[in-house]
Specification:
Blueprint (H helix, E strand, L loop, with lengths): L23 E2 L1 E4 L10 E5 L5 E8 L2 E7 L1 E9 L2 E10 L4 E4 L5 H11 L12 E11 L26 E9 L2 E13 L3 E11 L9 E2 L2 E16 L1
Length: about 230
């Protein structure tokens, strides 16, 4: 199923509650072996055209932000994605919202997220995701019959996923495998992929609870848009 991928920001809905958005829950298991001998062409990820947005929630509200990408590559063989890896710049993780929070408080939170309480970027300035499997998606899909834009039916779930993706996600030196649906299209010169998932931060040793009267939810929402070119 072919679907044009257009990145749509995830920040347009002010939550009526402070639970994590309803999204595809990443299935988390122990790290899996990566096939280092996959054949195919390596296409470079366009970091300026790619994005990872995050949403974190707590009892009293939510925060949003961006994790920049440093580099990456997608392996393409006979019109199919067979592998790939990208590097996240956690040292420059950003807090961008909500607008109701002052810039000073957002900067304060940004510093806290970079500290040892959360991502400990002094020791672990980068994170990574490396593909271990890409299969055709066979589950139930949200049909998008009118418009291929990802927000037409849901802000937080991929419409018409084409593939089931698994890969090793490394944060804070901890590697776990996650599996989730994604929408991937391949043209003559470009690969575009989009995924919208929730992960449990504690799986990667991010266990800071928050304030006793304002606990942080374990689920973090990630909106991922990747574009790679020959």
């Amino acid at each position: 199923m072919k679907s044009k991928l257009v990145w749509v920001p995830l920040l347009s809905i002010l939550f009526a509650c402070t639970n994590a958005p309803e999204s595809d829950e990443a299935k988390t298991t122990e790290a899996k072996d990566v096939n280092e001998n996959k054949t195919g062409a390596k296409w470079n990820v366009n970091v300026s055209d790619s994005k990872i947005e995050w949403i974190a929630t707590k009892v009293s509200g939510y925060h949003t932000g961006v994790v920049p990408l440093k580099s990456g590559e997608i392996i393409v063989n006979n019109g199919e994605v067979t592998g790939g890896k990208f590097i996240m710049d956690l040292a420059n993780l950003e807090v961008s919202g909500p607008k109701s929070v002052s810039e000073a408080n957002s900067k304060k939170l940004q510093g806290h997220l970079r500290s040892a309480d959360f991502f400990d970027v002094a020791k672990h300035p980068e994170g990574s995701f490396e593909l271990t499997s890409v299969k055709a998606y066979t589950g139930d899909a949200i049909k998008d019959s009118a418009d291929a834009r990802q927000d037409e039916i849901s802000e937080y779930k991929v419409t018409s996923p084409t593939h089931l993706v698994s890969g090793n996600l490394t944060l804070k030196g901890i590697t776990k495998n996650i599996e989730f649906p994604a929408s991937i299209t391949i043209s003559k010169n470009n690969v575009e992929a989009i995924a919208k998932i929730n992960i449990d931060r504690k799986e990667w040793g991010i266990i800071y609870p928050g304030q006793p009267d304002d606990l942080i939810r374990d689920q973090i929402h990630l909106g991922i848009a990747i574009k790679a070119s020959k």
